[in-house]
Amino acid sequence: MTRDIAFVRLTEIDPALIAEHMSDIRVAEHMPLLTGEWDVETARGFVAQKEACWVRDGLGHWGVLAEGRYVGWGGFQKEGDEWDFGLVLRPADFGLGAKIFRKALGVAKADPRIPYVTFLLPPSRKNLGALRRFGAQSLGEIGYEGATFLKFRLDTD
């Protein structure tokens, strides 16, 4: 069940919580594009960038709550003609990924603009069983902003 998982706009999350989350070395080890230190101002800039996606595309990233507690952020971002899904959880909440994704996938399936979603994962992510169980297909390695990622696609119909 996904009743205890809620998606809220990132503007509803305290920027200090986001800064703390993104400063955790356990998060950074799986985010090759994450550089520099995060503080409250960095978090505010990040939230502004993600809110711009909502304005441009009508969909974007959310703050993710479990039983009312911030556990991370994630959602959909338009990359060219594709909708990419990303999810970044606090280390204590890594185990909630499949449950959160199930709820997000429901959003994608209900949106006629999203015939499939893509995922870019760093090669450091070795446990890909959940993606495969959902039916995601590997599209191989791609370069993105100077880093290598494993790309997957999941049809939503």
Blueprint of the fold:
Layout: E1 5-9, H1 15-22, H2 25-28, H3 40-57, E2 61-66, E3 69-79, E4 82-89, H4 97-110, E5 116-121, H5 129-134, E6 137-144, E7 147-155
Parallel strand pairs: 4-5
Antiparallel strand pairs: 1-2, 2-3, 3-4, 5-7, 6-7
Helix pairs in contact: 1-3
| CATH architecture field of the domain at 5-113 | 3-Layer(aba) Sandwich
Distance between the termini: 21 Å
At the fourth CATH level, what is the homologous superfamily of the domain at 5-113?
Answer: Gcn5-related N-acetyltransferase (GNAT)
User: Which sequence of SSEs, written as H and E, runs from N to C?
Assistant: EHHHEEEHEHEE
Helix percent reads 25-40%
The average pLDDT is: 89
Main β-sheet, in a few words? Answer: 7 strands, mixed
The total of helices stands at: 5
| Estimated share of beta-strand residues | 25-35%
Widest β-sheet, arrangement of strands: 1-2-3-4-5-7-6
Query: For the record, what CATH class of the domain at 5-113 applies?
Result: Alpha Beta
Q: What structural class do you assign from the helix and strand content?
A: alpha+beta
Instruction: Work out the radius of gyration.
Output: 15 Å
Low-confidence stretches: none
- Described by the principal axes of the CA atoms, the overall outline is globular
**Which fold name is given in CATH as the topology of the domain at 5-113?**
Aminopeptidase
Got a strand count?
7
